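Example record

The entry below shows one chain as it appears in the dataset: sequence first, then structure tokens.
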Amino acid sequence: MKVAVGCDHAGFVLKNAVLDFLRAKGLEPLDFGAFSEEGGDDYPDVALKVARAVSSEEAACGVLMCGTGAGVSIAANKVSGVRAVPCHTAEMARLARAHNDVNVITLGGRVIKPEQVPDILEAWFSTSFEGGRHLQRLNKIAVAEKSTAICGNTLEGAGRTVIFDHPLVQHKVGIIRRKDTTVKQFRELLQEIAGLMVYEVTRSLPLTEIEVETPIAKTTVRTLAGKKLAIVPVLRAGLGMVDGILQIVPNAKVGHIGLYRDPETLNPVEYYCKLPQDIQERDVFVLDPMLATGGSAAAAISLIKKRGGKKVSLVCLIAAPEGIERVHKEHPDADIFIAALDSHLNDHGYIVPGLGDAGDRLFGTK
């Protein structure tokens, strides 16, 4: 197993102890420096090298050292997938692995002595991650790490989780959650929220310039460059989002996918799929108010891809970390747009705190 190792000048005194321990354990250290106690180096440089080696799986884990272990920890945690924590005792190292599944341990050359290194690293390497409630918490961190809160800025790229923080969206989500919200109010709010979200969902649509004549003079204006869109609600709750989006993009074609969740296995079962014939030419937005286990959403995206869809995104009202994780795992190229990220799923697969069953509340069937 390869272990990435790095330090700045203040952590150099510990590095030989770390390297000796790793070699004695039969592990292969990847030494990213520093190679002397002379100053002039900056701890973020080596910390980012080690963190990127761990994130890319070039190394299975990493050990970083600076004066206190804090600076390299801060820098390493900026890299996706890295969980770095300063550990100055064996107990801290054990708990960091058991509860946080730490993959980069950081040590302070001005806090601990070289002879303490073996006990700390032994505790870290010999402890297993406990999972359970701790995994649920790490999933939330992973979702937040991949998330981008929209504040009117232009964002590009695939496989994002975009959380809308616009005050109007958050206000209406707060109302729609209430158990005393009527069916009529629920329908109206769902359409309004979907309409507000579509502004940012379509932010990356390409524009072209054309010449028009105003009552005063000719001028050049920007217009959509003929991009074709399709919206595909997942029956039945997804239907509540359609009209709100069509009010903004009335030329979008509408497909439908019918899936229900098996109450025993919680797996999706397909019963209907009707898509525009030119689906392969369109940017497709799958609509489903609730992203719970992620099974139905992932299955809907798979159905669209099997029929030729290439660029598929998911638009939801409320999501759980478990659902986001599953969709990104099965469709790493899909963007997920949500109005709120909730805590977790309960034993029945419902989002907590959520808003209950969106389909029942939309159509008054419960």
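Notes for this example: The chain is about 35% helix and 25% strand. The chain has a mean pLDDT of 90.
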